[in-house]
Amino acid sequence: MRFYDRKEETKTFKAFFEAEDFKLFILYGRRRVGKTYLLKHCTQNRKGIFFSGRQISSELLLDLFSQEAGEMMNMTGIHFKHWEEAFDFAFSNTNLNYPI
Predict the structure, then answer these.
(1) pLDDT reported for residue 48
(2) Quick one: 93 exposed, middle or buried, by C-beta within 10 A (0-12, 13-18, 19+)?
(3) Where are the alpha helices (DSSP H) in 2-34?
(4) 78 Cβ partners below 8 Å, 6+ apart?
(5) CA distances in angstroms from 83 to 30, 53, 58, listed in the order given
(6) If phi over 0 gives left and psi between -120 and 50 gives alpha, with beta otherwise, what is residue 67?
(7) pLDDT tens digits, residue range 42-55?
(8) Distance CA 38, CA 9 (A)
(9) Where along the chain do its domains lie?
(10) Over the range 58-84, which residues count as b (16 or more CB within 10 Å of their CB) and which as e?
(11) Whole-angstrom Cα distance, residue 62 to residue 68?
(12) Alpha carbons 79 and 31: distance in angstroms, whole number
């Protein structure tokens, strides 16, 4: 699939990923306009966790996020019991320069 007319968005993502400080980035918009594809394009070949919400139970999402975080950190057996624990983990590991 070709990537069309997203120079400004790509530039914004590049600045975000190269920033020295920790930032929260939320991408939202209408359905079917390429948000997920844009994120995948801008994060390819970068270390980090690319995790997108799905319409499944919160428990299953948390399990999937735990698995992704464990793989990224080369740590087996990570399992978060609550989303608060997962976010605490993400924020405490921001010095690793791995976008989550």
Answers:
(1) 73
(2) middle
(3) 7-18
(4) 66, 67, 69, 70, 89
(5) 26, 13, 9
(6) alpha
(7) 888 887 777 888 88
(8) 8
(9) 1-46, 51-100
(10) eeebbeebbebbeebeeeeebebeeee
(11) 10
(12) 31
Nearest Cα neighbor of 27 from 10, 44, 7, 5 is 10
Looking at the chain, the number of H-run helices and the number of E-run strands are 4, 0
Which stretch of DSSP H or E encloses residue 92? helix 83-92
Q: What angle do CA 25, 55, 12 make, to 5 degrees?
A: 20
Residue found by looking up tokens 């399990």 in the block: 63
Q: Is the pTM above the cut of 0.85?
A: no
